[in-house]
Amino acid sequence: MKQLLYCVLALLFSPVLFASEMPLNMTEGVTEISGRIYSLHMVILYICCAIGIVVFGIMIYAMINHRKSKGAVAANFHESTKVEILWTVVPFIILIVMAIPATKTLIAMEDPSNADLTIKITGSQWKWHYSYFDQDIEFFSLLSTPREQIIGDETKGENYLLEVDKPLVLPINRKVRFLMTSEDVIHSWWVPAFAVKKDANPGFINEAWTRIDKPGTYRGQCAELCGKDHGFMPIVVEAVSEEDFDAWLITQQQQAQNAEAAAKAALSQTLTMDELMTKGEQIYLARCAACHQPNGAGLPGVFPSLIGSPIIKGPAQLHIDIVLNGKPGTAMQAFLNQLTATEIAAVVTYERNAWGNNSGDTVQASDVSSDTTTPATSVDSSPATPTTLPATLPATRPEVKQAIASETQADDQVAKELATAPLGDLAMNELITMGEKVYMANCAACHQAAGTGLPPAFPSLVGSPIVKGPIAAHLDIVINGKPGTAMQSFSAVLTPQQLAAVVTYERNAWGNDSGDAVQASDVDGHAK
Fold this sequence. Notes:
Helices cover 44% and strands 11% of the residues.
């Protein structure tokens, strides 16, 4: 019996004694914070194991020595004040012992002050964008695992789905502050070796920090389900010495200058169709195939097919424009700051001639540079004023910053004019046209472009009680939102004319066909 007891105790104590060596245990990491988290984890583990050993030890001892076959008779009692006090006080003390180091560690994890370097991390479907503050350096980091490995035509490499074309380079022994946000949906930047895992939310900035102790390559992934290619969004960090990092900064700045010069020179170059198609296919497979598929067929209802599409078959300038500026209210990103003029020209040429489109069009870098920055959705028959784009198209170029600032000022002026304009009545078709644009920009992300929503989080607007009910109630929920739900107030976001238009659109789109035409004057009196 004693041998059996010894075996049981050995089994109970073994996990405690060898937990730090187990391959399934938490890794210690390469930062001070990750080390503190690991130590805290081990202390809590030991406490839990000790509690388990005591509790199960008493149970096993009682079952062996107080079993019925040995003539044991169960005691008959109900309450014991001493026992109740004991099992209340002891867990309380244990929790306090665990809470003190845990609180200190959590406070340290959330303290990004006095950083030596600040980097903005922006997630988008499905890539990471890194911007080094005060260094004028930024780049996109994309998965570099060959497609042949992904589809199974080649043997998977050592770092399958955990390799990128441009890793984030950081210095050791310097405190690095991260500012994290997103361009579309919620992502999460996670590198286990740093003990950093922080959500990147659209419209918000989250902070985190790290100080790496030793050089090396550290890998992570997006840890938030962010769409169909969530598993193809790796993170690779190269930690280098401080001297190597300073040298890398100089190299990157020189490469940016060389790229700018090369892009300017490319404006005067004319590539052949074969050259454009070869380069365009490479760009398409790296940047566009995740959504529109390698064969251009897309995912109907989510990502449109490019085979014979109106954009592909239409004017080349509209095609260039939507690649440059994206399409608000959809998943189509703007590639203005992601690709050079030559790369955009090549991918547009490829799309217009691949998969049987065979337009015969060849787009050159000079065509992209002289394209208008007005979104394709707003192009009409009126003459447009062309704006020359910088050749390299990086967001940090002074020309681009000035252009963006000018456009922002113009947008602000238009907004002021809209807000102070007389609230005249619009025709039904004018309300529907304006309402559709407002809906796609502000509402489609939740309620979907087809109005079907994502029940139960975002209700369908097709035949819904709100849309079919009184106009006043519909206006009220759009203007003031609905507490306790994801429905926000749009009173400070949209003008009365826009509010009236989007309500009109919702009441007449997707087969609702109410015939109601809501005017800006109807909006007055509904804002709380």
